[in-house]
Amino acid sequence: MKSLHPNNIHNKGYDFELLLKSNSNLKPFIQDKHGKQTIDFSNPVAVKTLNKAILKTYYKINFWEFPDENLCPPIPGRVDYIHYLADLIKGETNVKVLDIGTGATCIYPLLGTAVYNWSFVAIDVDQKSLEIAEKNIKENDLRDKIELRYQKDSSNVLKGVINKDDVFTLTMCNPPFYASPEEARGANKRKSRNLGNTVIRNFAGVDNELWYKGGEKAFLHNYLYQSSLFPKSSLWFTSLVSKKENVKSLETSGKKLGVTKFKIIQMNQGNKVTRIVCWQF
């Protein structure tokens, strides 16, 4: 199994004894498997409780609430993106980050402020998600570090939310992977079967987290094009890319749009490989 970023404190797995000290609610979900402590990762309540305990124990994020229908981001993988971006901008000070599609969990801004004391502008197309994110920000006393903005037009990525005087060190994004609600539900069914879970989650109300017309490729190319309209607004534009074949088409289109640097960072998370694509003008 390949490891996380060298600076990721979760490289050695989960210390359940330590996690229990900050969140006793985790106790009923811990089970012994092959002589090691673990949880049932097919149980969404167990997964959410584990990640809340991780945030409280290691990042001093004491409040993190959102509806069960929203995706629960696994903290070790999310903080990996943050660490790799820190490598990308090594030496930069007063770092300000634009987070595209922050969601109700507001996870990247919460982690980025906790680990590196970065400031964030976090945007989303869903007003309800932003209301929930606002509560998570407020309860963790981070209003001076994280600003929320509403993207009124879901066909846009950057247009309508970037101001003329905005200057970001980084722009980051975890894009929707699927091309339709049906594709998202099908993937969820397969994942549930693989985990041995007979309960299929209902993704109603969080479609924007999962799918975009045309899928990941369409979203990324829209993002790339709109970044060319604001070339000086961010030192680096970045995004996670799940499908390897989308990387080459982005690089080709980027050259036509005036991209001067194009960088691919590989993230290894267990048996899963994800890429961070980075570009600047």
What general outline do the C-alpha atoms trace? globular
- How many strands, what sense, and barrel or not for the largest sheet? 7 strands, mixed
Q: How many helical elements?
A: 9
The strand order across the widest sheet is: 5-4-3-6-7-9-8
| Rounded radius of gyration (Å) | 19 Å
**Alpha carbon gap, first and last residue:** 36 Å
- H/E order of the elements? HEEHHEHEHEEHHHEHEE
User: Structural class, judged by helices and strands?
Assistant: alpha/beta
- Helix content, binned percent: 25-40%
Poorly predicted spans: 198-205
> How large a portion of the residues is in β-strands, by DSSP E?
15-25%
Written overview of the protein:
With 281 residues, the protein is α/β, with parallel strands linked by helices. It has nine helices and nine strands. The chain has helices at 16-22, 44-59, 75-88, 107-116, 127-139, 181-194, 207-210, 215-229, 245-257; strands at residues 30-33, 36-39, 96-100, 119-124, 146-150, 168-173, 234-241, 261-269, 272-280. A seven-stranded mixed β-sheet has the order 5-4-3-6-7-9-8, with helices on both faces. Strands 1-2 form a two-stranded antiparallel sheet. Helix 1 packs across helix 2 (44-59), helix 3 (75-88) packs across helix 4 (107-116) and helix 8 packs parallel to helix 9. The two termini are 36 Å apart. Mean pLDDT is 87; it is low at 198-205.
